[in-house]
Amino acid sequence: MAKIKFVGKEIFKFFSSLELTLAALSALALLVFLCTLGEVQLGVYDSVKIHFNSWFLYSRPILGGYHIPLFPAGKLVGIVLILNLLFAHFKRFTLSYKKIGLWLTHFGLIILFVGQFLSGSFSRESQMTIKENSSKNYSEDPRHSELDLIDATNPKTDTVYSIPQKLLKPGQVISLPNQITLKIKHYALNAAVDIRKNNDAAFPDYSLIQGPGKNLEIIDMPLSHDDNQPNMPATLVQVSDHGKVLGNWQMSEIIPLPQGIPVKGKNLYIILRPKRYYFPFSLFLKKFTHKIYPDTTIPSRFSSLIHINDPAAPAENRNTLISMNHPLRFQGLTFYQASYAQNNTVSILQVVRNPSWTIPYISSFLVALGLIFHFLMRLKQAKFLS
Amino acid sequence: MKKEPQPLKSSVFFNLLVLGSLIWAFFPFFPHSHSGTDLTSFSRFPVLQEGRLKPLDTVARSSLLILSHKEKVSTQGQELPASQWLLDLVSRPEIADLEKVFCIDNLDVLGFLNLPQTAQRYFSFNQIGPSWDRLEKKADAIEKIPAKSRSSFESALLEVEEQMVVYQRLKFSLEIPELPDSLPNLLLKNPRAIAQNKRLQKELSDILARSNFIDQSAYFWAIPISSETSYSWISSGKAISQLLTQGTLSQPLLFYHQMEDARKNSDPSTFNAAANSYHKWLQKNLPSQYRWSRYEEFFNAVSPFWKGIVLYFLVFLSLATSWVIWPERLTQFAMRLLLVAWSVHSFGILCRIVIQGRPPVTNLYSSAVFIGWVAVLLCWILERKFPKGFAAMTASIIGFTTLIIAHHLAMTGDTMEMMRAVLNSNFWLSTHVSSITIGYASTFVAGTLGILYILKGVLTPSLDKEAAKALVQMTYGIICFSLLFSFVGTVLGGIWADQSWGRFWGWDPKENGALLIVLWNAIILHARWGGFVRERGFMVMAVLGNIITSLSWFGVNMLGIGLHSYGWMDKAFFWLSIFILSQLAIAALGGLPLPYWKSKL
């Protein structure tokens, strides 16, 4: 019993020590530095994934492909800092008037860290590309794809069966409720498309390819880390109806056209495309404006004039202007003016769902208040002393 | 403390010196021509360039900075004001083409252009001209190479090509093709006569083609034309083609035409009369734009930042001398001079705010100017509290260095460029950007105090316990201040990011840099509170803070990625590396055990 108490005391001492604070802060500073350097080669998304959205920084594969953890990464350092802050509160901080500033600062920091963890797990970013004078009721995630089987037999509504990217692995068999079975033959996260040059018998899967994909060749490519050259996934899928093989279909996101599947009495299509998030409302783009300063190419303002169309609440329908620094917040989603395309006729909106978006506001207010309070008090003390 | 006897005379002398420098600091040196041409009026005429209305003088100065990295032209032992050079370039190009205004210091480029590889660094248009075709072809090839993979020869060559383009565009900007006397009259009264006359038709189409070319290549638009409610600006080429196709003559075109003709014929009185007519026309038709333009010309003529450089340097010299002789007198003089330097520095920042209608920091250039300003202000307050000359010394060093850096950053052209859409928000520029910049300024103050502590302590026996304590206290206070401002600034940046693209924290390199400063300040303070470092270690850490801040301020821009990058600067990279090495050396010096220090602490 005494031993447990002793160990507990040691753990408490370790987690509340100022040495740990310094070590964790230094590790964090180093991670920020490495992450920034990494962004040059890997792009922001992947560098952050390696340095912050993981527990350790790993070595290159050695000894039969094992990765050895070399240094704590963002998740571990973050948790250690939170524990350290919590323990230190219990150990050192007495509740007194003098310490109010420190309390506020560190309490605010705990909330800030927790908030970042929450937004890391719950926030979702996607993009909505709307052409002028048309409307959309979904956004797309360019970093993930999905395989969709569209049943357009009913003339009024389509039924879409979506298979998420994580199931798109070679050998995976997916049976859909309408007796269609999909077998994934090949999936590449990034691939180029070329006209097929030889009908090589060594690839029997090719000879079974149906539809327009039959003349194409998918060439696997290394992953792109350049944000301006997104990865273009491609796949080869075997489709069966009631257990009878209909053939193989080859698809790439470079060619975003649904391909028909011949099944008697049904109107079926298959397509590989960016993952979609559907909304219960739609946005209609009335006008996209791209203003520049005279005699320059410097943009002074981008804006999209949008009409919100919500069938569930027609009273909510209205016009709204989304521009840089002025997003639209609607039904838990926020729409930002992100980009444009096709000669200013297409507006690209960034769509963000982040339920914890208010946390950084509250927490940083607390931290700043605490710092100001503490330093003013120290200044007063110093004056008093001199 | 025993006061040294000081004769009254020297006091009067020093006070007169301060007064003299004050007058000099604020005196506008308007461009002046020896030939009697009214250059001052010409300098003030407003033109539209890069989306901003500015006086011709600003166009002349910023173009010269691009071409020759200075604001004047040295020719045959005398100096030409920028606007006189511009006037010659547009009216007497055959003379201007002989002026050595292109600064080329890459020897390989000189070789490529068949120019002598001697100590001579300035060349004229006529010297480069023969190689223009080859230069253009080579530059086209280089442009296809990504900026980061270019060799220094390739970047330098591209720079010369860009300088040549700016030069030639400037030359065309006020070109007004000669019209046969009969043509405008015929156009207005008897257009059919032209349609029937083949020779006139040919002339007309030649002139239209030339006007079109001038319109395409103009570097600035000089001609205001009235539209329904206000005036808009067009190039001289467009004004000509409007005259020929629609019969609308804009008066300013005529004035410029008269001025250029007079300049060509070396006839100052006709030039001055035309300039005066345009001056009156502007006062009558565009009073407010013209007022702004003249105001900016006044700011140019005062050149507050250049004077700041000189004055901060004098402050530094006086303080350094005061450590040897006349400590009190010279310190007092230096403090007054510092006040003069800071007021002209403030005047410059205020002018920029008013002219641009923006908060003080809008780009890298203005951040350098503002860092110096904040640092000097902070040091002034510190010096009042701890009057030992350390803070004043720090002020002169940072003030001088930041203004020099700003001067070098100005070589990319006009420093009051228009703000891109995402930055087009005065609220966030004034809150987020200003607080971050205040954070930079204060870490530099802390770091410089650390440098003084180490250099004075290690190299001289003059650092006593009392002085050391004062330095540490100042540094401590400034680091707390810096932590507060860099944290608030970083958070405001997060809020701006959340408002504009939905991410409180996007791991953009510039954000990361700001976060590093916050973390480093927090590390220093916790290390001190925990007793892990004492005075010496604390000051060494403060010096290392200089490295972090310089990386955050400059280093991340050199990564050439992210939403905040302003462009690739390889010359700056060299200086940044030198700076970082020097700071490491000083920190290492501070790491020497105390027995090796000359001062006994």
Helix-strand blueprint:
The complex is a heterodimer of chains A (386) and B (601).
Chain A: H1 2-16, H2 18-51, E1 56-58, E2 69-72, H3 74-91, H4 100-122, E3 124-131, E4 134-151, E5 159-164, E6 173-175, E7 180-188, E8 191-195, H5 204-207, E9 216-220, E10 234-241, E11 244-252, E12 259-263, E13 266-292, E14 299-309, E15 318-323, E16 328-330, E17 333-341, E18 346-353, H6 359-385
Antiparallel strand pairs in A: 1-2, 3-18, 4-5, 4-13, 6-7, 7-10, 8-9, 10-11, 12-13, 13-14, 14-15, 16-17, 17-18
Helix pairs in contact in A: 2-3, 3-4, 4-6
Chain B: H1 8-26, H2 39-44, E1 46-49, E2 52-55, H3 56-68, E3 72-75, E4 78-81, H4 82-91, H5 93-96, E5 100-103, H6 107-112, E6 122-124, H7 125-128, H8 132-143, H9 152-173, H10 182-189, H11 191-196, H12 198-217, E7 223-226, E8 231-234, H13 236-246, H14 251-264, H15 268-285, H16 287-302, H17 304-322, H18 327-356, H19 364-385, H20 390-409, H21 426-459, H22 465-501, H23 509-529, H24 535-558, H25 570-590
Antiparallel strand pairs in B: 1-2, 3-4, 5-6, 7-8
Helix pairs in contact in B: 1-17, 1-18, 3-4, 4-9, 4-14, 8-9, 12-13, 14-15, 15-16, 16-18, 17-18, 17-20, 18-19, 18-20, 19-20, 19-21, 20-21, 21-22, 21-24, 21-25, 22-23, 22-24, 23-24, 24-25
Jot down its keywords.
heterodimer; A: 386 residues; alpha+beta; four-stranded antiparallel sheet; 6 helices; 18 strands; 31% helix; 38% strand; globular; B: 601 residues; mainly alpha; 2 domains; two-stranded antiparallel ribbon; 25 helices; 8 strands
What does this protein look like?
Chain A is globular. Chain A contains six helices and 18 strands. Chain A has helices at 2-16, 18-51, 74-91, 100-122, 204-207, 359-385, and strands spanning 56-58, 69-72, 124-131, 134-151, 159-164, 173-175, 180-188, 191-195, 216-220, 234-241, 244-252, 259-263, 266-292, 299-309, 318-323, 328-330, 333-341, 346-353. With 386 residues, chain A is an alpha+beta fold. In chain A, the strands form five sheets. In chain A, strands 4, 5, 12, 13, 14 and 15 form a six-stranded antiparallel beta sheet that branches. Chain A has a four-stranded antiparallel beta sheet with strand order 3-18-17-16, with no helix packed on it. Helix content of chain A is 31%, strand content 38%. Chain A has three domains: 2-123 and 359-385, no CATH class; 125-135 and 278-353, no CATH class; 141-276, no CATH class. The two termini of chain B are 22 Å apart. In chain B, α8 packs across α9 (152-173), α18 packs antiparallel against α19 and α20 crosses α21 (426-459). By secondary structure, chain B is mostly helical. Chain B has two domains: 46-288, no CATH class; 358-596, no CATH class. In chain B, the strands form four sheets. In chain B, strands 1-2 form a two-stranded antiparallel ribbon. In chain B, strands 3-4 form a two-stranded antiparallel sheet. The chains are: A alpha+beta (386), B mainly alpha (601). At the A-B interface, α2, β14, β17 and α6 of A face α22 and α23 of B.
